[in-house]
Design brief:
The protein is an alpha+beta fold and 312 residues long. It has six helices and 13 strands. Helix 1 crosses helix 3 and helix 2 crosses helix 3. The longest helix has 31 residues. The radius of gyration is 23 Å and the shape is globular.
Length: 312
């Protein structure tokens, strides 16, 4: 199978040669997920991996090679043509990653006046003063994918938590040249870490505050990652925004396990269901404050009838 490498680097701007291992790990996992989502959109069935190269001097610059394995009809062509095509694949995938991130930057900086409209294979996004931006279908498909949303939240959530990181850049390497793909200042990290719905406009979004009782399925202290919980019999994923409680957990002042109960102040962001005037769907959850924790309810012993052989 023909393969080739396209070289890129991700630069965490800030204090030279220093970055927390947690920030680095979460950022890389999130970037890989976003790249794979873009690859799946452009080349269904194609495989793509990221190989880390040795770092260079300066700010903490991490080089990586993007290997594309072309499958299907392309695998039948001559090796030289296949290698050239694979090189193009890496560039096309990363260009799509760039467009997805740029779309999120756009939607976090300008409120839409109406949901996007599809015209042929493109989508038109509408903003104030009759301005509109045309986005291709591949960019919107990847942007709307839950895996891509989680990846961007993880990436920008991680760098946002690390105070040493003042900016983030992704560049394509071509010999001694660097072609900037994405350059983002720290001031944008918080907005880019939030979940963004491309279909929503401001007057269609509301936030409800509730007192809630949640059962823990899987907690996470990694920046940008959400807790897996049960709320009213439904599994949800919620951001833990109570910094005091997170600090207590990190200091091991409180411990918990699967099934434990949290009494919390919960914010639920909801979006108006299209075609209705008062029907809202839940789209994200945020734990503002943890009031109390209780251990998981214990399972009562079975009351076996007399004479049952298992009762002895």
């Amino acid at each position: 199978m023909p393969t080739a490498e396209s070289a890129y680097e991700i630069e965490f701007e800030g204090k030279p040669s220093q970055i927390s291992a947690e920030t680095l790990g979460v950022s890389l996992v999130s970037l890989v997920a976003l790249v794979k989502e873009a690859n799946a959109e452009l080349y269904p069935g194609g495989q793509i991996t990221i190989q880390i190269k040795a770092q260079r001097e300066g700010s903490y610059i991490l080089g990586y090679d993007l290997e594309s394995a072309i499958v299907g009809s392309l695998a039948m062509v001559a090796s030289h043509e296949g290698l050239l095509a694979a090189k193009v694949v890496g560039s096309a995938v990363m260009d799509l990653v760039k467009k997805v991130i740029e779309l999120k930057r756009l939607l976090t900086s300008k409120p839409q006046t109406q949901p996007p409209t599809q015209v042929g294979s493109n989508y038109h996004f509408h903003f104030g003063d009759n301005a509109h931006v045309v986005i291709d279908a591949s960019t919107k498909h990847v942007f709307d994918a839950p895996a891509a949303q989680d990846a961007m939240s993880g990436l920008f959530g991680a760098v946002g938590q690390d105070q040493k990181v003042t900016g983030l850049a992704i560049k394509e390497i071509d010999g001694d040249n660097r072609r900037p793909l994405v350059a983002i200042d720290r001031s944008e990290f918080k907005a880019l870490a939030a979940t963004v719905d491309a279909q929503a406009v401001p007057d269609q979004i509301r936030v409800e505050a509730r007192e809630a009782r949640l059962s823990i399925l899987k907690p996470s202290l990694l920046p940008g990652y959400k807790w897996e919980l049960v709320y009213d019999g439904v599994r949800i994923f919620a951001e833990m925004a109570d910094e005091d409680y997170i600090g207590k957990v990190e200091r091991r002042e409180v411990v918990f396990g699967t099934g434990d109960i949290l009494d919390v102040a919960l914010e639920i962001e909801q979006r108006l269901l299209a075609g209705t005037t008062n029907v809202y769907l839940n789209r994200s959850f945020r734990i503002v404050k943890v009031h109390d924790r209780a251990p998981a309810p214990s399972q009562p012993p079975l009351d076996l009838p007399p004479g049952d052989p298992d009762s002895n």
